[in-house]
Amino acid sequence: MKKTKPIKRMLGASFVALLLGGAVTFAFWHVQAGEIEKTATSEDLITSNKTWVNAKTEIPLTNDIHFVPQKKGTSVKIVGDGDLQIEVDDAQLLKQMADENPDFKGMKKYRLRVEADRVADYLNNERYIFPVEHGYKGLSNYRIKAGERKIKSANKLISLTKKNTNRAVETTLPVEYSDDLAKDAVDILKMNVSSGKLILDDSFSSGYKKIEARAKTFHYNFTVEKNSLLIFKSEEEVQIDEPIGIEYVMK
Q1: Which residues are within 8 A (CB) of 142 and not within 5 positions of it... i.e. 6 or more apart?
Q2: Region 215-234: what's the mean pLDDT?
Q3: pTM of the prediction?
Q4: How many Cβ atoms sit within 10 Å of the Cβ of residue 212?
Q5: What is the rounded average pLDDT for all residues in the chain?
């Protein structure tokens, strides 16, 4: 029996060494992962957004109407907090927008402000691809079979406060889901949808008498396939409306 003690000691020491080695490896990996997965600062975001504009990236006004920065009758800039600010009084563009959407009829000037962390997505919306990987929740498997994301103007008007020629908006807009399955898809499939709400705080000066404010949104329309216990299979078309900014129609 005495001869087995050194073996036991060796095994015990090896076990402790493995535990310590694992702990050290985990700590090293955790530090490295923390260094690699740094979140972008607000300065990085502002710089990135300015790069898109400086590169003369085509600017969408609606899902189908675009223009190139520096076009006469347009103004495109990244403001202090990184938001994209667009102003248009080019008659041709305004007419195209009015022909597409009755809400723009009689428009003499258009103004749009897109939230800083959605600028890159807004400018590159047509490159958006829905997740193709499977996602799991409990005993259910989810995936998106087909869908599209469009730039859309909300129907509901947002209240504007007026003082002399100054106009201001201060409101919070929620992300709207057609049902719980749409919400589940965002979380389970890690879709690039802003969580919860958009806080809008914007002000500007304008001499136009009639100004209508609406949310500018990403409208997601897609089909979710859900398999439960490898037996029950269902498909459902769902929608999400994600506010990404605010637009003003001046008449």
Answers
A1: 134, 135, 136, 184, 185, 188, 189, 224, 225, 226, 227
A2: 90
A3: 0.80
A4: 16
A5: 85
